[in-house]
Amino acid sequence: MAPYAAPQHQVDIDSHRPIMSLSTPPRNCGDHASTYHWDTIREFADPTERVKKLVFTQSDCVAESTLYGSRSYEEHTIVCCSTMSGCPIGCRFCGSGDFFIRKLSASEIVSQAQYILENCIDGIDPTCIQKLDIRVMSMGEPLLNTSLWQAFHYLHALYPHATLQISTSAPDIDWSWVLDMSVAIPSVALQFSVHESTNQARDALIPFKRKLSLEGIADIGIAWHRTTGRRPSFNYCAHGCNVDQADADRLTGLFPPAIWDATVSVICERNEFQRAHNQHQHILALDFSSKLASRGFKVRIENPPAVETIGGGCGQLWFVQEWMRAHPSLVRRSVGNSLPARHPSPSRSVQSAADLCV
Description:
With 358 residues, the protein is of the alpha/beta class. It has a single domain (30-336), classed as TIM Barrel (Alpha-Beta Barrel). The chain is 27% helix and 22% strand. The protein contains 9 helices and 15 strands. The strands form 3 sheets. It has a 10-stranded mixed β-sheet, sandwiched between helices. Helix 1 packs parallel to helix 2 (147-158). The longest helix is centred in the C-terminal third of the chain and has 17 residues, at 278-294.
C-alpha cells in the first residue's frame, strides 16, 4: 500500500470552524500495526501557543487529542489521547462529564498518537524529540479500559523513548494488571487525579461510586512504587476552597513526599467561549504549589495554553461536546449528568470564602 500522504491543514481560529475535513484510509504500519481508520480527522490550531487540537470521529464515536509543543517540538512534545468516547466517571469540571458512548479499541487509542506524531509536528522525526510524553488523559478513564495494555505495548514499540503516562481517577478495580503492565513497560508513569484533600469534597467533584478513597489511592501508589521503583504523582486542581495550609497538611499525611510527586493544575473552563479567569486560577495554583514545595514535594504546575481559543486545557473538550449534542441517540448519561458543573471562580475580589469555591 502506498505511504499515507498527509494533507496541508488550515484552520479558522476566530470561528473555531474547520476549513478542512479529511478521510483517513487504513494504513499498514509494519510489525506494530495501527491504522488511521477514523472517518474524519479535524485539526484546530492556536499558532501563537504551539497547541493543536485533533478531533477524530467515526459513525458511532468521537475522540479528542491535544498536541503541545514546548519552545520547539524537538525539545519537548506532549500528546494527550482519549481512551474512551465520553466517560462514565462524571467529573463535574470535565466537558465529557455528562455522557458516555463506549470504550476505544487499542488501535483507536494508538492511532491518535501515531497520526499526530506522523502528521502534525512540522515534519520532525519523532525519534529526534528529546522529551516525548504520550499521556492518556484527554477523555475517558483509562483504567476502565483494559485495551490500554495492548495500546501501550504498541506505543512503546513505536516510540520506545516516550514516557507513557496514565492519568487516573482511581477506579476500584483489580490493580494487578496495572502493576504487571508497569513492570513490563518501563516507561509507564502513573498519576492520580486526586484534586481534593478530603473524600467528601472529592466525592462531590467525582461522583463515580466505584472508586478508591484517598487512603486507597495512597496504598496503591505505594504498592506501585515498591513494584516498579518509580515515583507516582498526584494531580490537584487548586480552587478557592482547597488551598489552605490544612489541605497541604492532609495531602502530605496521605502522600509522603519521599515517595510521591505533585502536580497542581489550573482549572480550565469546560463551557465553550466562557473566559477561563486563567490569571486568578494561576495565582491559586502558584500559591498552593509553594505550600506543597515547603513540605518537601517536587511540584509541577500544569497551566495549559490555548484554553480560550481552542479549548487547549484538560477536560475542556469543546468539540466533543458539540459532537455529542449533534448525536443524542448515541450517548448515554453518566452518573454526573444531573449534577451541577464546576467552573473556575471568577476573581479574588469576591467577599467571602464561599464565593471563591469552584
